[in-house]
Design a protein that fits this description.
Blueprint (H helix, E strand, L loop, with lengths): L1 H50 L5 H15 L4 E5 H5 L8 H29 L6 H15 L4 E5 L2
Antiparallel strand pairs: 1-2
Helix pairs in contact: 1-2, 1-4, 4-5
Amino acid sequence: MVKQCSYNVTRFLRRCCENWKMLSLLLNVLWVVLGGLPMALAWWLAALICAASIIGLPWARSCWVIGKFSLWPFGSRAVNRRDLNGRGDLGTGLLGLLGNVVWFLVAGWWLALGHLSSALACFVTIIGIPFGIQHIKLALIAFTPVGMTVIHKR
């Protein structure tokens, strides 16, 4: 009896994970088709501009990672590396804070404004609400991308 119950629970959990993967895939495809691509391209343009100078390379790396997340956000989440690893590094310490302040003044508020305007457009319909929420999350990340990394939910 116990063996049968544990088998049913395991089968149920596998089915839920498969359903979550399918839902995540569907949401990501809708996201790209319905407007996620322009914001990802904006992040990658910012990465190219930052990479044009040696000084902007730390921001270029952050822009590239967040740009990939902006293209395919469902099923992943952005976290601070300090929270993930339990210890600080170059991007999560004082230099990371300084980098985020410079980033905000130069380009962060433009990307955040783009995500907020996209969120407002998504909130017009009921179907667009999850996409609008995701744009708001990305707008918050746009303020301080240095020290962030993207992990996949499992």
